[in-house]
Amino acid sequence: MTQTPRIDCLQYANWSEKVFRQMRQGGVHGVHVTIAYHENFREMVLNIEQWNRWFEQYPDLIFMGRTGDDVRLAQQTNRTAIFFGFQNPSPIEDDFGLIEICHTLGARFMQLTYNNQSLLATGCYEDDDTGVTRFGKQAIAEMNRVGLVIDMSHSAERSTLEAIDLSARPIAITHANPHWWHAALRNKSDEVLKALTRSGGMLGFSLYPHHLKDGTSCNVESFCTMIAEAAERYGVEHLGLGSDLCQDQPDSIVTWMRNGRWSRATDFGEGTASAPGFPQQPDWFRDNRDFGNISDGLVQAGFSPEEVAAIMGGNWLCFYDEAFTAQGT
Amino acid sequence: MTQTPRIDCLQYANWSEKVFRQMRQGGVHGVHVTIAYHENFREMVLNIEQWNRWFEQYPDLIFMGRTGDDVRLAQQTNRTAIFFGFQNPSPIEDDFGLIEICHTLGARFMQLTYNNQSLLATGCYEDDDTGVTRFGKQAIAEMNRVGLVIDMSHSAERSTLEAIDLSARPIAITHANPHWWHAALRNKSDEVLKALTRSGGMLGFSLYPHHLKDGTSCNVESFCTMIAEAAERYGVEHLGLGSDLCQDQPDSIVTWMRNGRWSRATDFGEGTASAPGFPQQPDWFRDNRDFGNISDGLVQAGFSPEEVAAIMGGNWLCFYDEAFTAQGT
Q1: Which of residues 24-63 of A touch B (CB under 8 A)?
Q2: Between chain B's N and C termini, which has fewer beta carbons within 10 Å?
Q3: Distance (Å, rounded) from C-alpha B72 to C-alpha B317?
């Protein structure tokens, strides 16, 4: 196996045979898919049950990924390995022991928070960031032990810096961009990105329009020039993609993502009352078939073929190889 | 690896370091432990969480078993592989998809019923046995698919015969004795045992006093002579042990096993109002250290060394090798 795989470290599509076929058409060998936003443990298990039906239904297209070697197996068999993750710690409820249970069931990433305060840390939409909680410190140690990656994509600044510091293993920000490129609340400060990458962590660049400079109108040159700047600041080996692709989802889903069961009034998150729905994707990244536009853009931005391959998936594969197994194994 | 392992295919002790050390002292390499009687899915998961703590606490004594090879690993490393099972289908609730989830979490045996009617079949204490239900037929096919063994130890006659017939893979009666030896409600008819073993299934002989001729006073000669008779009737290759050892349990546990949450009045099961507690074990099988008394008794009953080894664990190991993986793998 000499070719480097393509990995997208965050998608939440309205899954269908069409989407799985587009993964194949785009040559995507590994995808980290969100299986929980606000779900409790039992509800999250129902989502795995649905994935088990898809794995049974489309064995020629997708299968469940557990280790980096499953990405290699996907390359060898022309399929896509699907890795589970949570955007909120709600599936572990208030129960330390569920961390290992979730890992056994296939979870490989868990955000310590979505946008709000969680039992573990503070989300980026809260007014005050009190850092990692008492339960959060225990959870980080347990996630380190079993091989469940700490993801701080939606977390607030102090919480993120503390998680990087507390974690004995490198963590990830699977889907966000640098704040210095586009000053969105969800994008990350230079300080966070330096601390993340210095500790061996990974950043997945987001293609969600609210995270892009000029939103839907952002062009691929701007996106790839930003990546070149990030490579200079943080080192190319810490960079990958986490597109945040929410393909084919109805707008009711983004409302649910933002509101779950916690808000009586509608929270618009990164949207507004006048534009509450999903934003339109830029025309150079509409779905899984468009990853070639990004690799072409990276070449144009001056990256070598090896660097392009690393950003398109090689770096995530190295990270997966180290991050998903129990500590010391 | 030339030595045959010792396997006990049913225990429900009040687990402790003492019990795990006695498994080692008795040279027991594999134990099927009950982790659910009346628990729903979430409650069963709490029991796995407790087992995960024991695996972490006593790594030199026990570890979680998933395949027959884990019994071999136990032999090589002088430990005991622990295999999970349910005595009732309550952990799958009304949800087909939980069968695969439970298998992923480590479950390897599931009784279609405990003593009562379940959603899948009829238990041996019901007045009428209506056989395998509509959900039960779906569940059998799914258990066959994923490699979760159908156990009919507590099920009624017709349900058991139907399950044997419906299952595409051999099933098990992990802990019961022949009705022709001791006419207890829980012991199995000759017809059931013939159908079970002709289809490649396994019988684990129980050492629970209510299943023994003369109860606590049963002697090892009587027990082993019964096994010799069973070997003539059914073939030695289908026979093993499933002691039903409930060591160190307080009597409140047998009350809970019998009553769960289903009965306001106290059900005494195999006990009586005047003797509602756990019966006393016979003095030749008090705990895991006493398996040598049984292998000695089997020699006395005329079995060859190879046959003794097969009954003490070799037969269960062959069954484990075939039964625990997904169909067609």
Answers
A1: 41-42, 45-46, 48-50, 52-53
A2: C
A3: 9
